[in-house]
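Is this the right way to post C-alpha coordinates for a design question? Let me know if I should format differently. Anyway, here goes:
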Protein backbone atom coordinates (compact mmCIF):
# COMPACT_ATOMS: atom_id res chain seq x y z
CA UNK A 1 0.00 0.00 0.00
CA UNK A 2 0.92 3.62 -0.22
CA UNK A 3 3.62 5.24 1.82
CA UNK A 4 2.36 7.85 4.24
CA UNK A 5 0.79 8.24 7.62
CA UNK A 6 -1.98 6.46 9.52
CA UNK A 7 -3.23 3.18 8.01
CA UNK A 8 -0.96 3.56 5.02
CA UNK A 9 2.05 3.68 7.31
CA UNK A 10 1.00 0.38 8.90
CA UNK A 11 0.66 -1.27 5.52
CA UNK A 12 3.99 0.16 4.44
CA UNK A 13 5.78 -1.24 7.48
CA UNK A 14 4.36 -4.68 6.82
CA UNK A 15 5.46 -4.62 3.20
CA UNK A 16 8.84 -3.17 4.14
CA UNK A 17 9.51 -6.28 6.21
CA UNK A 18 8.60 -8.44 3.23
CA UNK A 19 10.84 -6.38 0.96
CA UNK A 20 13.78 -6.52 3.33
CA UNK A 21 13.43 -10.27 3.75
CA UNK A 22 13.09 -10.74 0.00
CA UNK A 23 16.10 -8.56 -0.69
CA UNK A 24 18.26 -10.40 1.84
CA UNK A 25 17.17 -13.70 0.35
CA UNK A 26 17.98 -12.49 -3.16
CA UNK A 27 21.43 -11.35 -2.04
CA UNK A 28 22.12 -14.76 -0.54
CA UNK A 29 21.07 -16.47 -3.73
CA UNK A 30 23.25 -14.18 -5.80
CA UNK A 31 26.28 -15.02 -3.68
CA UNK A 32 25.53 -18.69 -3.94
CA UNK A 33 -19.39 4.07 -7.21
CA UNK A 34 -20.79 3.70 -3.75
CA UNK A 35 -22.97 0.58 -3.83
CA UNK A 36 -26.49 -0.13 -2.77
CA UNK A 37 -26.80 -0.71 0.98
CA UNK A 38 -28.83 -3.91 0.65
CA UNK A 39 -26.24 -5.89 -1.31
CA UNK A 40 -25.12 -7.91 1.68
CA UNK A 41 -25.99 -8.37 5.27
CA UNK A 42 -24.06 -6.29 7.80
CA UNK A 43 -21.03 -8.38 8.68
CA UNK A 44 -21.98 -11.11 11.14
CA UNK A 45 -25.59 -9.97 11.47
CA UNK A 46 -27.31 -12.70 9.52
CA UNK A 47 -29.48 -12.32 6.44
CA UNK A 48 -30.41 -8.92 5.06
CA UNK A 49 -33.19 -7.67 2.82
CA UNK A 50 -33.64 -9.70 -0.38
CA UNK A 51 -31.72 -8.39 -3.39
CA UNK A 52 -33.57 -6.33 -5.95
CA UNK A 53 -31.36 -7.54 -8.81
CA UNK A 54 -33.20 -8.73 -11.89
CA UNK A 55 -32.08 -12.12 -13.19
CA UNK A 56 -30.96 -12.34 -16.78
CA UNK A 57 -30.12 -8.67 -17.30
CA UNK A 58 -26.64 -7.97 -18.62
CA UNK A 59 -23.97 -6.16 -16.61
CA UNK A 60 -22.20 -3.41 -18.60
CA UNK A 61 -19.01 -4.61 -20.26
CA UNK A 62 -15.56 -3.34 -19.29
CA UNK A 63 -13.44 -1.55 -21.92
CA UNK A 64 -12.34 -3.70 -24.84
CA UNK A 65 -9.03 -5.48 -24.23
CA UNK A 66 -7.03 -8.26 -25.85
CA UNK A 67 -9.11 -11.39 -26.51
CA UNK A 68 -9.33 -13.71 -23.50
CA UNK A 69 -7.43 -11.29 -21.23
CA UNK A 70 -7.33 -13.24 -17.94
CA UNK A 71 -8.14 -10.14 -15.83
CA UNK A 72 -6.94 -11.87 -12.65
CA UNK A 73 -3.43 -12.63 -11.50
CA UNK A 74 -0.80 -11.85 -8.90
CA UNK A 75 2.45 -10.06 -8.13
CA UNK A 76 5.59 -11.97 -7.21
CA UNK A 77 7.08 -10.62 -3.99
CA UNK A 78 10.26 -11.26 -1.97
CA UNK A 79 9.89 -15.05 -2.17
CA UNK A 80 8.49 -16.98 -5.09
CA UNK A 81 8.68 -20.47 -6.54
CA UNK A 82 12.03 -19.84 -8.23
CA UNK A 83 13.71 -19.14 -4.85
CA UNK A 84 13.49 -22.66 -3.40
CA UNK A 85 14.60 -25.58 -5.58
CA UNK A 86 14.35 -26.39 -9.27
CA UNK A 87 11.95 -29.24 -8.51
CA UNK A 88 9.77 -26.96 -6.40
CA UNK A 89 9.67 -24.36 -9.19
CA UNK A 90 8.61 -27.03 -11.67
CA UNK A 91 5.88 -28.31 -9.35
CA UNK A 92 4.42 -24.84 -8.77
CA UNK A 93 4.71 -24.01 -12.47
CA UNK A 94 2.74 -27.09 -13.45
CA UNK A 95 0.05 -26.26 -10.90
CA UNK A 96 -0.26 -22.63 -12.03
CA UNK A 97 -0.23 -23.61 -15.71
CA UNK A 98 -3.58 -25.37 -15.36
CA UNK A 99 -5.22 -21.92 -15.46
CA UNK A 100 -2.91 -19.31 -16.98
CA UNK A 101 -3.02 -15.99 -15.16
CA UNK A 102 -1.40 -12.56 -15.17
CA UNK A 103 1.91 -12.42 -13.29
CA UNK A 104 3.69 -9.20 -12.33
CA UNK A 105 7.32 -8.61 -11.32
CA UNK A 106 9.21 -5.44 -10.32
CA UNK A 107 12.64 -4.72 -11.81
CA UNK A 108 14.32 -4.09 -8.42
CA UNK A 109 13.37 -5.33 -4.96
CA UNK A 110 10.51 -7.76 -4.41
CA UNK A 111 12.93 -10.67 -4.88
CA UNK A 112 15.12 -9.06 -7.56
CA UNK A 113 18.57 -7.54 -7.06
CA UNK A 114 19.73 -4.18 -8.40
CA UNK A 115 19.46 -4.45 -12.22
CA UNK A 116 22.00 -1.68 -12.96
CA UNK A 117 24.57 -1.51 -10.14
CA UNK A 118 26.86 0.66 -12.28
CA UNK A 119 25.72 3.01 -15.03
CA UNK A 120 25.35 0.99 -18.20
CA UNK A 121 26.28 -2.31 -16.51
CA UNK A 122 23.31 -4.59 -16.08
CA UNK A 123 22.53 -7.55 -13.84
CA UNK A 124 19.61 -9.51 -15.26
CA UNK A 125 19.92 -12.88 -13.50
CA UNK A 126 17.08 -12.43 -11.01
CA UNK A 127 14.67 -10.80 -13.44
CA UNK A 128 15.47 -13.54 -15.97
CA UNK A 129 14.68 -16.16 -13.36
CA UNK A 130 11.30 -14.65 -12.51
CA UNK A 131 10.42 -14.18 -16.17
CA UNK A 132 11.29 -17.83 -16.84
CA UNK A 133 8.98 -18.85 -14.00
CA UNK A 134 6.15 -16.91 -15.65
CA UNK A 135 6.84 -18.65 -18.96
CA UNK A 136 6.95 -22.11 -17.37
CA UNK A 137 3.60 -21.50 -15.70
CA UNK A 138 2.03 -20.18 -18.93
CA UNK A 139 1.40 -16.79 -17.38
CA UNK A 140 0.97 -13.45 -19.10
CA UNK A 141 3.94 -11.42 -17.91
CA UNK A 142 3.72 -7.86 -16.61
CA UNK A 143 6.70 -5.80 -15.48
CA UNK A 144 6.57 -2.94 -12.99
CA UNK A 145 9.26 -0.36 -13.74
CA UNK A 146 10.28 0.18 -10.12
CA UNK A 147 12.48 0.58 -8.20
CA UNK A 148 15.62 2.63 -9.02
CA UNK A 149 19.29 1.69 -8.53
CA UNK A 150 21.00 3.39 -5.58
CA UNK A 151 23.20 5.69 -7.65
CA UNK A 152 20.08 7.26 -9.19
CA UNK A 153 18.83 8.39 -5.77
CA UNK A 154 21.89 9.65 -3.92
CA UNK A 155 23.47 6.32 -3.02
CA UNK A 156 26.73 4.74 -4.14
CA UNK A 157 27.36 2.77 -7.29
CA UNK A 158 27.65 -0.98 -6.99
CA UNK A 159 25.43 -3.78 -5.67
CA UNK A 160 22.85 -2.57 -3.16
CA UNK A 161 24.00 -2.93 0.43
CA UNK A 162 21.82 -4.90 2.83
CA UNK A 163 20.84 -1.86 4.91
CA UNK A 164 19.87 0.11 1.81
CA UNK A 165 17.12 -2.33 0.88
CA UNK A 166 15.02 -1.42 3.92
CA UNK A 167 16.06 2.24 4.12
CA UNK A 168 16.18 3.39 0.51
CA UNK A 169 14.40 0.95 -1.81
CA UNK A 170 11.32 3.17 -1.95
CA UNK A 171 13.24 6.39 -2.68
CA UNK A 172 12.50 8.04 -6.01
CA UNK A 173 15.34 8.73 -8.43
CA UNK A 174 16.63 12.29 -8.33
CA UNK A 175 15.34 14.49 -11.18
CA UNK A 176 18.81 14.62 -12.70
CA UNK A 177 18.61 10.83 -13.06
CA UNK A 178 15.09 10.61 -14.56
CA UNK A 179 16.68 10.15 -17.99
CA UNK A 180 18.89 7.36 -16.62
CA UNK A 181 15.88 5.55 -15.18
CA UNK A 182 14.06 5.96 -18.49
CA UNK A 183 17.06 4.39 -20.27
CA UNK A 184 17.01 1.49 -17.79
CA UNK A 185 13.29 1.03 -18.48
CA UNK A 186 13.98 0.96 -22.20
CA UNK A 187 16.73 -1.62 -21.64
CA UNK A 188 14.25 -3.78 -19.72
CA UNK A 189 11.66 -3.49 -22.50
CA UNK A 190 14.32 -4.35 -25.10
CA UNK A 191 15.56 -7.43 -23.23
CA UNK A 192 12.11 -8.79 -22.45
CA UNK A 193 10.40 -8.45 -25.80
CA UNK A 194 7.95 -11.17 -24.85
CA UNK A 195 6.56 -8.83 -22.18
CA UNK A 196 3.97 -6.44 -23.56
CA UNK A 197 2.66 -4.68 -20.45
CA UNK A 198 4.56 -2.25 -18.23
CA UNK A 199 3.45 -0.29 -15.17
CA UNK A 200 5.47 2.84 -14.35
CA UNK A 201 6.76 3.08 -10.78
CA UNK A 202 4.85 2.00 -7.66
CA UNK A 203 2.51 3.98 -5.40
CA UNK A 204 4.27 7.33 -5.92
CA UNK A 205 7.15 5.99 -3.81
CA UNK A 206 9.39 8.94 -2.96
CA UNK A 207 6.93 11.35 -4.55
CA UNK A 208 4.43 11.37 -1.67
CA UNK A 209 6.02 11.01 1.75
CA UNK A 210 3.27 12.77 3.75
CA UNK A 211 -0.23 11.86 2.66
CA UNK A 212 -1.72 14.76 4.60
CA UNK A 213 -0.07 17.02 2.03
CA UNK A 214 -0.17 17.12 -1.78
CA UNK A 215 1.96 14.61 -3.65
CA UNK A 216 4.77 15.65 -5.97
CA UNK A 217 2.58 14.79 -8.93
CA UNK A 218 4.57 17.03 -11.26
CA UNK A 219 7.75 15.11 -10.46
CA UNK A 220 6.07 11.75 -10.97
CA UNK A 221 4.50 12.85 -14.24
CA UNK A 222 7.87 14.07 -15.53
CA UNK A 223 9.40 10.67 -14.73
CA UNK A 224 6.44 8.86 -16.26
CA UNK A 225 6.66 10.83 -19.50
CA UNK A 226 10.38 10.18 -19.88
CA UNK A 227 9.84 6.46 -19.30
CA UNK A 228 6.88 6.40 -21.67
CA UNK A 229 8.87 8.05 -24.47
CA UNK A 230 11.96 5.88 -23.92
CA UNK A 231 10.06 2.58 -23.90
CA UNK A 232 7.86 3.46 -26.85
CA UNK A 233 10.96 4.49 -28.82
CA UNK A 234 12.42 0.98 -28.60
CA UNK A 235 9.15 -0.95 -28.29
CA UNK A 236 6.26 0.79 -30.10
CA UNK A 237 4.19 -2.32 -29.39
CA UNK A 238 4.61 -2.02 -25.61
CA UNK A 239 1.57 -1.09 -23.54
CA UNK A 240 2.30 1.33 -20.71
CA UNK A 241 0.19 2.51 -17.78
CA UNK A 242 0.29 4.67 -14.66
CA UNK A 243 0.13 6.38 -12.27
CA UNK A 244 -0.03 3.37 -9.88
CA UNK A 245 -1.24 5.54 -6.99
CA UNK A 246 -2.98 4.36 -3.83
CA UNK A 247 -6.55 5.61 -3.42
CA UNK A 248 -6.45 6.39 0.31
CA UNK A 249 -9.75 7.18 2.03
CA UNK A 250 -10.95 8.61 5.33
CA UNK A 251 -14.21 8.61 7.25
CA UNK A 252 -14.87 12.24 6.29
CA UNK A 253 -13.57 14.67 3.69
CA UNK A 254 -14.56 17.01 0.91
CA UNK A 255 -13.70 15.13 -2.29
CA UNK A 256 -16.31 14.15 -4.85
CA UNK A 257 -15.49 10.43 -4.60
CA UNK A 258 -17.35 9.18 -1.55
CA UNK A 259 -19.73 6.54 -0.29
CA UNK A 260 -20.76 4.65 2.82
CA UNK A 261 -17.18 3.31 2.81
CA UNK A 262 -15.68 6.80 3.32
CA UNK A 263 -14.18 9.65 1.25
CA UNK A 264 -11.14 9.41 -1.03
CA UNK A 265 -8.31 11.76 -0.08
CA UNK A 266 -8.50 14.86 -2.30
CA UNK A 267 -4.72 14.74 -2.67
CA UNK A 268 -5.14 11.45 -4.52
CA UNK A 269 -7.65 12.88 -6.97
CA UNK A 270 -5.51 15.97 -7.56
CA UNK A 271 -2.46 13.80 -8.32
CA UNK A 272 -4.42 11.49 -10.61
CA UNK A 273 -6.06 14.29 -12.54
CA UNK A 274 -2.76 16.16 -13.05
CA UNK A 275 -1.10 13.00 -14.35
CA UNK A 276 -4.01 12.20 -16.63
CA UNK A 277 -4.10 15.71 -18.09
CA UNK A 278 -0.31 15.97 -18.59
CA UNK A 279 0.75 12.41 -19.42
CA UNK A 280 2.39 11.73 -22.78
CA UNK A 281 0.09 8.79 -23.29
CA UNK A 282 -1.31 5.71 -21.56
CA UNK A 283 -2.70 2.38 -22.68
CA UNK A 284 -4.37 1.78 -19.31
CA UNK A 285 -4.63 3.40 -15.88
CA UNK A 286 -3.21 1.82 -12.73
CA UNK A 287 -4.33 2.32 -9.13
CA UNK A 288 -4.35 0.40 -5.88
CA UNK A 289 -5.96 0.70 -2.49
CA UNK A 290 -7.52 -0.88 0.57
CA UNK A 291 -11.16 -1.21 1.48
CA UNK A 292 -10.21 0.25 4.87
CA UNK A 293 -9.77 3.90 5.71
CA UNK A 294 -6.38 5.25 6.75
CA UNK A 295 -7.58 4.87 10.35
CA UNK A 296 -8.10 1.10 9.84
CA UNK A 297 -11.91 1.42 9.68
CA UNK A 298 -14.11 -0.88 7.60
CA UNK A 299 -17.12 1.22 6.78
CA UNK A 300 -19.87 0.23 7.26
CA UNK A 301 -18.48 -3.31 7.72
CA UNK A 302 -16.02 -5.71 6.11
CA UNK A 303 -18.22 -6.49 3.12
CA UNK A 304 -19.81 -3.08 2.70
CA UNK A 305 -16.36 -1.47 2.61
CA UNK A 306 -15.61 -3.39 -0.59
CA UNK A 307 -17.96 -1.09 -2.48
CA UNK A 308 -15.07 1.38 -2.45
CA UNK A 309 -13.38 -0.70 -5.17
CA UNK A 310 -16.40 -0.52 -7.46
CA UNK A 311 -16.92 3.18 -6.83
CA UNK A 312 -13.31 4.03 -7.68
CA UNK A 313 -13.38 1.85 -10.81
CA UNK A 314 -16.56 3.55 -12.02
CA UNK A 315 -15.10 7.01 -11.31
CA UNK A 316 -11.92 6.16 -13.22
CA UNK A 317 -13.82 4.84 -16.22
CA UNK A 318 -15.86 8.02 -16.37
CA UNK A 319 -12.87 10.34 -15.92
CA UNK A 320 -10.65 8.64 -18.48
CA UNK A 321 -13.07 8.02 -21.31
CA UNK A 322 -13.18 4.33 -20.41
CA UNK A 323 -9.49 3.46 -20.50
CA UNK A 324 -8.88 -0.02 -19.07
CA UNK A 325 -8.63 0.16 -15.26
CA UNK A 326 -5.96 -1.92 -13.54
CA UNK A 327 -5.83 -2.61 -9.81
CA UNK A 328 -2.15 -3.36 -9.23
CA UNK A 329 -2.78 -4.28 -5.58
CA UNK A 330 -5.80 -4.41 -3.32
CA UNK A 331 -6.22 -5.06 0.41
CA UNK A 332 -9.21 -6.02 2.49
CA UNK A 333 -8.09 -7.57 5.81
CA UNK A 334 -7.97 -5.90 9.25
CA UNK A 335 -4.96 -3.76 10.10
CA UNK A 336 -5.53 -3.45 13.84
CA UNK A 337 -4.13 -6.85 14.84
CA UNK A 338 -7.42 -8.68 14.36
CA UNK A 339 -7.11 -12.03 12.60
CA UNK A 340 -9.94 -13.54 10.61
CA UNK A 341 -10.55 -17.25 10.25
CA UNK A 342 -9.69 -18.44 6.75
CA UNK A 343 -13.31 -18.89 5.53
CA UNK A 344 -14.12 -15.26 6.30
CA UNK A 345 -10.90 -13.96 4.73
CA UNK A 346 -11.60 -15.91 1.55
CA UNK A 347 -15.24 -14.78 1.47
CA UNK A 348 -14.21 -11.13 1.72
CA UNK A 349 -11.61 -11.64 -1.00
CA UNK A 350 -14.16 -13.30 -3.28
CA UNK A 351 -16.66 -10.51 -2.67
CA UNK A 352 -14.00 -7.92 -3.53
CA UNK A 353 -13.32 -9.71 -6.82
CA UNK A 354 -17.04 -9.68 -7.59
CA UNK A 355 -16.94 -5.93 -7.01
CA UNK A 356 -14.10 -5.55 -9.54
CA UNK A 357 -15.87 -7.69 -12.13
CA UNK A 358 -19.22 -5.95 -11.81
CA UNK A 359 -17.72 -2.45 -12.01
CA UNK A 360 -15.70 -3.34 -15.10
CA UNK A 361 -12.11 -3.42 -13.83
CA UNK A 362 -9.94 -4.87 -16.57
CA UNK A 363 -7.20 -6.23 -14.33
CA UNK A 364 -6.77 -7.09 -10.64
CA UNK A 365 -3.41 -8.34 -9.32
CA UNK A 366 -3.28 -10.06 -5.95
CA UNK A 367 -0.26 -9.17 -3.80
CA UNK A 368 0.99 -12.68 -3.02
CA UNK A 369 2.65 -12.84 0.44
CA UNK A 370 4.59 -16.00 -0.32
CA UNK A 371 7.04 -17.55 2.16
CA UNK A 372 9.56 -20.41 2.12
CA UNK A 373 8.38 -22.09 5.30
CA UNK A 374 5.95 -21.90 8.21
CA UNK A 375 2.40 -20.64 8.24
CA UNK A 376 1.55 -18.64 5.16
CA UNK A 377 -1.88 -16.96 5.48
CA UNK A 378 -3.12 -15.75 2.14
CA UNK A 379 -0.39 -17.50 0.14
CA UNK A 380 -1.28 -18.93 -3.25
CA UNK A 381 0.72 -22.16 -2.92
CA UNK A 382 2.05 -24.24 -0.04
CA UNK A 383 5.60 -23.23 0.95
CA UNK A 384 6.73 -26.86 1.22
CA UNK A 385 4.68 -28.91 -1.24
CA UNK A 386 3.89 -26.31 -3.89
CA UNK A 387 0.24 -27.40 -3.90
CA UNK A 388 -2.21 -24.64 -4.77
CA UNK A 389 -3.84 -23.29 -1.62
CA UNK A 390 -7.42 -21.93 -1.36
CA UNK A 391 -6.31 -18.39 -2.18
CA UNK A 392 -4.55 -19.58 -5.32
CA UNK A 393 -7.57 -21.63 -6.32
CA UNK A 394 -9.87 -18.65 -5.81
CA UNK A 395 -7.77 -16.43 -8.07
CA UNK A 396 -7.40 -19.14 -10.72
CA UNK A 397 -11.14 -19.95 -10.65
CA UNK A 398 -11.95 -16.29 -11.33
CA UNK A 399 -9.36 -16.27 -14.12
CA UNK A 400 -10.98 -19.33 -15.67
CA UNK A 401 -14.62 -18.32 -15.42
CA UNK A 402 -14.57 -14.52 -15.36
CA UNK A 403 -11.89 -13.17 -17.71
CA UNK A 404 -12.35 -9.62 -18.94
CA UNK A 405 -14.40 -10.74 -21.92
CA UNK A 406 -16.90 -12.80 -19.92
CA UNK A 407 -20.58 -11.99 -20.52
CA UNK A 408 -21.78 -11.17 -17.02
CA UNK A 409 -25.43 -11.53 -16.10
CA UNK A 410 -27.32 -10.32 -13.05
CA UNK A 411 -28.65 -13.22 -11.03
CA UNK A 412 -30.94 -12.63 -8.07
CA UNK A 413 -30.62 -14.25 -4.67
CA UNK A 414 -33.61 -14.51 -2.37
CA UNK A 415 -31.29 -13.57 0.48
CA UNK A 416 -29.00 -10.56 0.00
CA UNK A 417 -26.54 -12.15 2.40
CA UNK A 418 -25.47 -14.20 -0.62
CA UNK A 419 -23.55 -12.29 -3.29
CA UNK A 420 -23.62 -13.76 -6.78
CA UNK A 421 -21.57 -13.32 -9.93
CA UNK A 422 -22.71 -15.16 -13.04
CA UNK A 423 -21.96 -15.75 -16.69
CA UNK A 424 -23.95 -18.01 -19.03
CA UNK A 425 -22.21 -21.23 -17.99
CA UNK A 426 -21.11 -20.69 -14.40
CA UNK A 427 -21.86 -18.72 -11.27
CA UNK A 428 -20.24 -18.21 -7.91
CA UNK A 429 -22.06 -17.57 -4.63
CA UNK A 430 -20.54 -16.05 -1.50
CA UNK A 431 -22.18 -16.17 1.91
CA UNK A 432 -21.27 -12.81 3.45
CA UNK A 433 -22.59 -13.71 6.92
CA UNK A 434 -21.53 -15.84 9.87
CA UNK A 435 -24.77 -17.87 9.67
CA UNK A 436 -25.84 -20.71 7.40
CA UNK A 437 -28.11 -19.48 4.61
CA UNK A 438 -30.53 -21.36 2.38
CA UNK A 439 -31.51 -19.18 -0.55
CA UNK A 440 -32.95 -19.43 -4.03
CA UNK A 441 -30.26 -18.43 -6.51
CA UNK A 442 -30.81 -18.57 -10.26
CA UNK A 443 -34.02 -20.48 -9.68
CA UNK A 444 -32.35 -23.19 -7.57
CA UNK A 445 -32.19 -23.69 -3.83
CA UNK A 446 -28.69 -23.50 -2.37
CA UNK A 447 -27.43 -23.87 1.18
CA UNK A 448 -24.19 -22.17 2.13
CA UNK A 449 -22.28 -22.54 5.35
CA UNK A 450 -21.07 -19.38 7.12
CA UNK A 451 -18.76 -17.48 4.73
CA UNK A 452 -18.85 -20.34 2.22
CA UNK A 453 -17.90 -19.80 -1.43
CA UNK A 454 -19.78 -22.13 -3.75
CA UNK A 455 -19.50 -22.53 -7.54
CA UNK A 456 -22.33 -23.91 -9.64
CA UNK A 457 -23.01 -24.76 -13.28
CA UNK A 458 -25.97 -23.04 -14.91
Amino acid sequence: MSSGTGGSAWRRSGRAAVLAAGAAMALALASCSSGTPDRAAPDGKGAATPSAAVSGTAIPKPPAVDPAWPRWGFTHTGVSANNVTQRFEQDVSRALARTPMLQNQHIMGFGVLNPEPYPGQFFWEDLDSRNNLVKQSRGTSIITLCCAPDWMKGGPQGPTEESAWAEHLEDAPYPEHFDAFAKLSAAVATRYRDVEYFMVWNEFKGFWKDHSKPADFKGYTELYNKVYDAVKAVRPDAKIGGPYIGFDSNRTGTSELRGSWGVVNQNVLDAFEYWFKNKRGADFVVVDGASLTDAHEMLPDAFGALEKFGAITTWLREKTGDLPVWWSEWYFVPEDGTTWAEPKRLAVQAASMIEFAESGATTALYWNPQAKQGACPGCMWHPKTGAILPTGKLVSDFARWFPAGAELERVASSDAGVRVLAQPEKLVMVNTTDAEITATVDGKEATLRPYEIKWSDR
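Format looks fine. Someone answered above. Worth noting: Residues 58 and 323 are 21 Å apart (CA to CA). The domain at 6-40+63-407 is CATH 3.20.20.80 (TIM Barrel).
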